[in-house]
Specification:
The chain is an alpha+beta fold. It is built from 1 helix and 5 strands; from the N terminus they run βββββα. The protein has a single domain, classed as Phosphatidylinositol 3-kinase Catalytic Subunit, Chain A, domain 4 (2-Layer Sandwich). Strands 1, 2, 3, 4 and 5 form a 5-stranded antiparallel β-sheet that branches. The radius of gyration is 15 Å and the shape is globular. It starts with a strand and ends in a 15-residue tail after the last helix. The relative contact order is 0.16.
Length: about 90
Amino acid sequence: MPGVFTLPHDSRLKSLGVSPTECKVFSSKKAPILISTINQQLGAPNYLTVFKLGDDLKQDIFTIQILRLFDKWWLEAGLDLKMSPYQVVNT
């Protein structure tokens, strides 16, 4: 594994490796994997990435787009619901 690598959903995020104790497999039908990669910036939290195989992510991407839109509208109306939509990359 390279000393420093970038994550596929944002090339600005630099990681030093994987933290195996924080990784897990979800118990859903497609068994997505949560990978915790070590942040290059000391003291910063690790990056969490979910990998899915054999799943159509179009529905996930659409749902996240809707959540981002509603979060924007709610924030403009002064209502912060602490939404944290994540990046989805369909490859």
